[in-house]
Design brief:
homodimer, 213 residues, alpha/beta, Arc Repressor Mutant, subunit A, 7-stranded mixed sheet, 9 helices, DNA-binding
DNA sequence: CGTTGTGAAGAGCTTCACAGCG
DNA sequence: CGCTGTGAAGCTCTTCACAACG
């Protein structure tokens, strides 16, 4: 399926965007779409879309465009999100609880099957039918549960410890929501979600815009 | 203060990261740091750091490095986050509530002073001492409250409507947590927070890693 | 002497322009 | 005929290498 060795990181990011926009278009009844129209909806250059899609194969039909449903399926397949991923969440704070209640995870195929925290007052509590387990037991439990992805929602000072447990558990990927860098071996993929970066960016742009007039 | 016309978007992103790491280093007692050490902590090239910082001014001392506290202050000033920003949140679902409870916003100078929703059952409810107001009244209320930034945490199908109210209210920047693109005039800065992009990226990397061996 | 600040070289991603094809 | 797929050109951001300097 993969045509080329290296795929730009930016392409992967856009593919997630394309799926989002395509699913909206599908809901609105679109069956076929050209790269030009999809580009407009995504605020991207049409060539960019064609090139991004071509990395994974010729999904389009010349003279016609792309079949919406088929394209959604193909992109999801290419990204590896055409299946269920089992995840563990570490850190039952405000953010952790919100993510656990967030229906979108399940809808998109990410099932949170294990919940961990080091606070004795939280251990044993049930959230959405799942018991909160002591973080120390993560390595033994993760295997049992078949977890492949870890979500860190601890305070920053405990993020590295959470990561260590996850790594010890043999997890292959981590999404870190805590505002702290974490160290991990080469083979573990780490992604950082930091909404303050986005807030800072907005603040900077507003400040810049004002200083210019 | 600004030395150059155009500053790469990526630089702004990294500056937010530098602040995060520098604050950790400061807590650990560091007073001076070289670009080489900071680079290691941020997982970035040392030249990159020097170049990023040089866009805003010569913050360093040759032969010595950067004074940690001074650098934090300078970066924050450059980004425009050395002051209080007043924000409004639209959409009191799970995610919205979690963000409202998240102490980090206030700690970083982003004060959520208005909460809006279109659900009659939620209007009038109090969250953290702030009353939930009908979204329709956003344009009138935002001015009163001195709001400059809007946070959208509605379901995707209501994101554009929320954005319209915010734009009508004269807001200058929007951080959209809903999984939907929104249209906005040129002068309004829009940022998207989408953790599924990060999850997709992790899923892709795991899939890729496995198919390679 | 050691580290910053920076022009120049390099890498990687984006856009163009058009051949290829349904 | 129209839209995709793609080599080549263009551009932006990153890294190198070293002069500048406290």
């Amino acid at each position: 399926m993969l045509r080329s060795e290296h795929i730009p990181r930016a392409t992967i990011k856009r593919l997630a965007l394309y799926v989002q926009v395509l699913e909206t278009l599908k809901r609105e009844g679109a069956e076929v779409i050209s790269s030009e129209l999809l580009a407009k909806a995504c605020d991207v250059n049409p060539s960019q879309i064609r090139k991004d899609l071509a990395y994974f194969g010729g999904f389009g039909v010349r003279g016609v465009g792309y079949y919406v449903q088929e394209l959604i399926t193909s992109i999801k397949q290419s990204l590896g999100v055409d299946r269920i991923w089992r995840a563990a969440l570490v850190g039952v704070g405000n953010l952790g609880k919100a993510l656990l209640r967030h229906q979108e995870f399940r809808r998109r195929g990410f099932h949170i099957v294990g919940i961990f925290d080091c606070d004795p007052f939280k251990i044993g509590e049930e959230i959405g039918g799942i018991e909160v387990i002591c973080s120390k037991r993560l390595p033994e439990k993760a295997g049992e549960l078949g977890v492949e992805i870890g979500l860190i929602t601890t305070p920053p000072e405990r993020a590295q410890r959470a990561a260590n447990y996850l790594i010890e558990a043999g997890i292959k990927g981590i999404v870190n929501f805590a505002p702290a860098r974490i160290a991990a071996p080469e083979h573990v993929c780490v992604e950082y979600v930091d909404f303050f970066h986005h807030l800072y960016n907005v603040a900077f742009n507003i400040t810049l815009g004002q200083s210019q007039r």
